[in-house]
Structure formats: structure tokens, C-alpha cells
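Q: What would this chain look like folded?
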Amino acid sequence: MADLIKDFSIEGHNYTFLFRKVVSTSTHKYFIRAFNKIDEQVHFEMKRLENGRWVIIQPAPLWITQMEVALSEFISAHVTV
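A: My prediction, written as C-alpha cells:
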């Protein structure tokens, strides 16, 4: 089950993003799965830096990397670390 869920519209396509917290004593991370109704899917991880910003730490498609700021702001707004 996802810890956070957010729908984003990207280039006219609606994607659902499921955020699952990765439990670790040394870092704060989320495993993220994005999918749409056509069954297109992408998986990637985001990690919290010391400055509080969340960054993509796995290779991801360009459209995902272009959303990094929006994803970071969403996580920051909904998670207390």
C-alpha cells in the first residue's frame, strides 16, 4: 500500500503517482510508481538531501526528471522528517 498518492496531468495524460517510503536508518527515500490508464508505467526512487530537497536517484525518463521540483514539493508538503 502506498504512503502517499498524487495525480498529475502530464502533456494531457493523467498519471497516478504512488509513493512508498523506504525504511532505512541512514537515509530517507521513497520508491515511486507512476502509471496511467493506458498501463504505461515507470518506477524510480527519490532521496532526501541534507538541505531537505528531494531528488531523483535512479535513471528516469526525461518527463519524470522535469517534474523533480513538483515531486519534491509534494513530498515535502506531506512528510515530516
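The beta strands are 4-10, 13-22, 29-36, 41-48, 54-56.
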